[in-house]
Design brief:
- The complex is a heterodimer of chains A (430) and B (397).
- Chain A is α+β, with helices and mostly antiparallel strands and 430 residues long.
- In chain A, 37% of the residues lie in helices and 28% in strands.
- Chain A has 3 domains: 155 residues, Immunoglobulins (Immunoglobulin-like), CATH 2.60.40; 46 residues, no CATH class; 203 residues, von Willebrand factor, type A domain (Rossmann fold).
- In chain A, strands 19-18-15-20-21-22 form a 6-stranded mixed β-sheet, sandwiched between helices. In chain A, strands 1-11-10-5-7 form a 5-stranded antiparallel β-sheet.
- Chain A is elongated, with a radius of gyration of 33 Å.
- Chain A starts with a strand and ends with a helix.
- The model of chain A has no long low-confidence stretch (mean pLDDT 90).
- Chain B has 397 residues and is α/β, with parallel strands linked by helices.
- Among the domains of chain B are: 172 residues, Rossmann fold, CATH 3.40.50; 84 residues, no CATH class.
- In chain B, the strands form 2 sheets. In chain B, strands 2-10-3-4-9-8-7 form a 7-stranded mixed β-sheet. A two-stranded antiparallel ribbon of chain B has the order 5-6.
- In chain B, α4 links the parallel β3 and β4.
- In chain B, α3 runs parallel beside α4 and α11 runs parallel beside α14.
- The chains are: A alpha+beta (430), B alpha/beta (397).
- β16 of chain A pairs parallel with β11 of chain B, so a sheet runs across the interface.
Chain lengths: 430, 397
Amino acid sequence: MVLTGRTGLLAVLGAAVLVVAPSWWTLLAVNAVLAVLVMIDLALAGNVRRLGLHRSGDTNVRLGEKASVALIVENLGDRKLKARLRDAWPPSAGASPRAVDLTVPPGERRRVDMRLVPTRRGDRRAVTVTVRSHGPLGLAARQLSRPVPWTVRVLPAFPSRRHLPAKLARLRELTGQHAALIRGQGTEFDSLREYVDGDDVRSIDWRATARRGDVVVRTWRPERDRRIYLVLDTGRTAAGRVGDIPRLDCSMDAALLLGALASRAGDRVDLLAYDRRVRARVEGSARTEVLTAMVRAMAPLEPELIEADAAGMVSTLLSRVRQRCLVVLLTDLNATAMEEGLLPLLPQLTAKHLVMIAAVSDPRVSEMATARGDAAAVYDAAAAERARADRRRITAELRTYGVEVVDAPPDEIAPALADAYLSLKAAGRL
Amino acid sequence: MSVMAPQAPPSSGPATAGQVARRRWRRSRGIIIAVLALVVLGVVLAALRPRVRAEYLDPESPGQQGTRALAEITRQHGTPVTVVRGASAAADQMRAHPDAVLVIARSERLLPADLGTLQSLPGDRLLIAPTTDTLQALAPGVDRTGGAAGTLSPGCSLPAATYAGPVGFTGSEVYTAPAKATKCYLSDGEPNLVQLAVNGSTVTVLGSGDPLTNERLGENGNAALGMNLVGARPSAVWLLPDPPPPGGGGQKSFGDLVPFGVKLAVLQALVAVVLVALWRSRRLGPVVVEPLPVVVRSAEAVEGRARLYRARRAGDRAAQALRAGALERLTRLLGMPTSAAADPRMASEIVAAVAAHTGQDQAVIGAALYGPPPVDDAELVRLAGFLDDLERRVRTS
């Protein structure tokens, strides 16, 4: 039961009646009348229990875009429902309007359109629907909250997809459309064709030439059907904010661009998110669906404030993948975490696989390194130089294991990682 | 059919300082105007308030508003003036001298009980600007009708007035009186001075005390009128009541004074307050909580290290880090192997190469790149600047 402001107003008017006719009986009568009116109003209010509530609408939305979810209110009772309705969502779902007034005659249904502009990645679950049904006098109302479950998955924004056309153009230069005459380690034999001026004489197939009586060259094409394993580190180093976004989100963006590119290039792409256990895994998706699957798997990921377990990650990876593949580890080049975690285990990985480490560097450190002017700024610069030296040292150490390292600020990491992949592919090292 | 969501107002960008100021002004101007209006009202009321001083009509006060001059000249003319400060003291004096004139000034200070006492006393009375209650008790039939001002001539047969001649009345009251009463100093037909007989004694009502004050006594016939009225009998008793004690007569509590209906209304208002509280306290659905992500800046560790350096004045470590960074960049610019930067055996070679590119003295470059740590912050800042300069020169050479 809920009272309204009108009840309070009537009670105040009752005070005026008491001044005119001062008696205890008047006081009793005024409040009795008020109570009876409230009772009548409650009895005549639409039934909140006999309501059918259903939802329909979007289940996925990219971060920064707008989703709409409709709520159907069906009046199964026999009285008209005149109500105020609130569909409660978590604050980061950005739901509007906060509450709506609606009238539903018996046996009819009405639609309430909710607009969601989420402010964070992840799953947003509807909390409750609260209906406050007013009586005809507007003095009192019945109220009931009921869960009407619905989940909107907020997908990563993938801002680096604007780089995709340029990278795909580079990819096309390497693959089918332009047959490559450069023979690289790991490139595949494609076909034989007649020699034309300008072809590399080294690519002449003398045996075929002898058979045909005409000069024939071999063509090669970049390898296909290689396997790329993307590994997202969701441990504590991924929680640090670079600019205003967590490092994990930058890594996801880079992983998505690489995944999109590699799946178009005809490679198989798998994804693993790991800190001390598997947070998300995408394996064996069809090429056309791998991006969708990755985006959906990444959406609810949050960085955990725990030290990542490198040994667990390596053993999980080794147990999942038998054939040689490119392991792309998206993490941070944190000297202590690397030295204690990944470095001792790298030989196990590099023995079978090609390993690439992509790390997001913090532009704030570069900014601090160039700071000059007073003692405070120079101390800042010294600390930044020290951090950069650590990073260089760990990069050099990783390279001695034959690991490819991509270290770039957040707005360049995605294209840089794509370029690194393309050059590996061009060199036939996959 | 659908209930469409009300459109959200178009979201504008972050408000500028001007917009914020305008919004604050719009929100608070009502309050500011109300406060200003209150101040203005207070000032105006204070300015309009008639200034009645404590000494007004006091026969013992020599101040401008006192009447000591009138009392003194009356005494000099053989009429003793006794000053009393309470109704009971006046009653004692009047019973002792039944042929005296009782002068009642500042009658607004008299309580209803005092008026009863004075009513029963013998002798004549002179009422100076009396209140309505006093008029009803002591001069029945005389009523206040309004105010007047100006110098008026007697216009009546009363000897006291005719001997005095014109008198200046300021802020005086005029009266209606029964037909048999004597009316003097008419202004627009209504008298400023009324004399009538009540129960065998003569009661004179004077509209204003101003002509009797020390300040105005010398003007026109003021002094003569005063002396004639006060000294009409062998003696005079001047009653100037003390202000009644605060709360005097307030035997009733506040509760007794409030009507029963109002009390019930207050009770009902309490009921209304409870109902309104019930209305406001019920939320439309629960408060929704959600876990928020941690906010850790990635560069925090680096900034922390910088603050530690500064707190410990670790110029040596800072210089070491700066030199290592500069050496790394210089060797790369000079096309040397990257391992050279950290190798002390390559020091002389690097210094020579840098000197060749920049044209600076080898000793100075050597001191900057491999020299002793700086002794203070100022030297550290200079070192950082010099290393920057070296790098710039090598890059442009």
